[in-house]
Amino acid sequence: MSASAAVNLFCLPYAGASAAVFREWRSKLPAWINPIALHLPARGVRQQMAPLHQWPALIDLLVADVTPHLDRPFAIFGHSMGALIAVELAHAIRQRRQQSLLLLCASGCEAPSRRQWNDGWLSSSREALLAELQGLNGTLGDLLMNDEFMALVLPMIRADFHLCGTYRRRDRAPLASQLLVLAGTQDKPHLRDPELLRCWWSEVSGACRTEIVNGDHFFINSHRQEVIDHLVAALSDASVASRCAIA
Question: Does the model's pTM come out above 0.90?
Answer without folding.
Answer: yes
